[in-house]
Amino acid sequence: MTTLPHERQIKDYEKMIVQLKQQSQSKHSLWSENELQKLEKKLEHLKKRVYADLSPWERVAICRHPARPHTIDYVKNICEDFVELYGDRSFGDDHAVIGGLATIDGKRVMLIGQEKGNDTESRIYRNFGMVHPEGFRKALRLMKLAEKFNLPIVSLIDTPGAFCGLSAEERGQGLVIAENISQMSQIKTPIIVLIIGEGCSGGALAMAVGDVVGMLEHAYYSVISPEGCASILWKDAQKNSEAASTLKMNSEDLLEFNIIDSIIKEPLGGAHHDPKFVYDGVRKFLSEELKRLKNISSDMLLDLRYCKYRKIGKVASTQELIEKDEEPCEAGIRE
Questions:
Q1: Do residues 247 and 222 make contact, with C-beta atoms less than 8 angstroms apart?
Q2: Do 146 and 228 share a domain, yes or no?
Q3: Would you say 111 and 79 are in contact if contact means Cβ atoms under 8 Å apart?
Q4: Which of the ends of the chain has fewer CB neighbours closer than 10 A, N or C?
Q5: What is the helix (H) or strand (E) element at residue 105, kind and residue range?
């Protein structure tokens, strides 16, 4: 498994303990069983200390770990069955988007997700999770199909951004992202969004308008990647750590800003250390939300969804600005 920079001290300590255990099996061992147990306890304390003090940039590294579970892993581990559906009925099938009919804890849903791939061949096949216009149209087609049959929608977000190549722009990338956002806000069936990895830019937002937005602890959700932000603001991509801190894109920040509604805990060090722990947490989250949203009428659902997104971006009330003797700015006020 790939070792991240902040994990090197832990890996060196683990390697030393393994070597000492191998030596202890010989007749001339210098370490007792009790001493080895003390070393293992120190290792646990080291892990807790390192993982409790992660910087935003180190958490981005965890989010991008090659062994982190992707959409296809969640499909295999939380769904009782899954029937994949293909194509946008207009141009073609985008392999960066997986979608189809699924059953989660006995509940029938339309599950849609962005897939990056897990090795060189599959990453090229999936275009590294960067969605083309036909991928967004495919996702919207499946959502409309779910609405027709009154099925709840589960959308898994994991993309470094929409594909920005010339071919995508020629096929109307910007327009199709805007259409998805508009149409998702009006779909009359429950939509549950879960950010499982990178939630970057319009590529994420085009599939992330929902009634409830959940997020894994070490995922991130941002208008731009830290590297892109650093290149624009400081003209230096090496300032990605500073950009990651400034963007406030981690789960705790987004929960405070009411951009997301729930955080799903990850095991110590990230989802790749114990995928089953994460699968169980995601299954529980989806099951609870599906049960909660089931009895809400479609009209009420749309009203609540509208109110949810109207509240995002509020910076001050008119009364607060009057008390501060400032001029109200319509662009910055959300009553």
A1: yes
A2: yes
A3: yes
A4: C
A5: none
Given a cut of 50, whether residue 227 has pLDDT beyond it is: yes
Q: Per the structure block, which two tokens stand in for 12?
A: 């060196």
Question: Vertex 311, ends 254 and 309: CA angle to 5°?
Answer: 80
Task: Return phi, psi of residue 125, to 5°.
Answer: -60, -40
SS3 109: strand
Residues 241, 226: Cα–Cα separation, whole Å: 7
Gap between the Cα atoms of 315 and 58, Å rounded: 29
What pairs with residue 83 in β-bridges? Answer: 101
**83 exposed, middle or buried (CB, 10 Å; 0-12, 13-18, 19+)?**
exposed
Same domain, 106 and 132: yes
Average pLDDT score over the chain = 90
| Torsion sign over Cα 240, 55, 73, 216 | negative
β-strand 191-200 against 97-104: which pairing, if any? unpaired
- Residue entry with tokens 């509940």: 107
The residue count of the chain comes to 335
Q: Which domain does 14 fall in, by range?
A: 5-24+32-53
pLDDT exceeds cutoff 70 at 314: no
User: Which amino acid type is present at position 276?
Assistant: K
Average pLDDT over every residue of 7-30 = 81
pLDDT tens for 168-203 read 999 999 999 999 999 999 999 999 999 999 999 999
User: Is the same domain home to 40 and 138?
Assistant: no
Please name the amino acid found at residue 243: A
Amino acid at 155: S
Q: Specify the higher pLDDT residue, 312 or 229.
A: 229
For β-strands 81-84 and 153-159, DSSP reports them as unpaired
Sign, CA dihedral 175-173-177-237, equals negative
Residue 38: both structure tokens together: 């003390």
> Helices 133-148 and 173-184, interaxial angle, to 10°?
20
* Count of structural domains within the chain: 2
What value does the CA radius of gyration of the chain take, rounded to a whole number of Å? 23
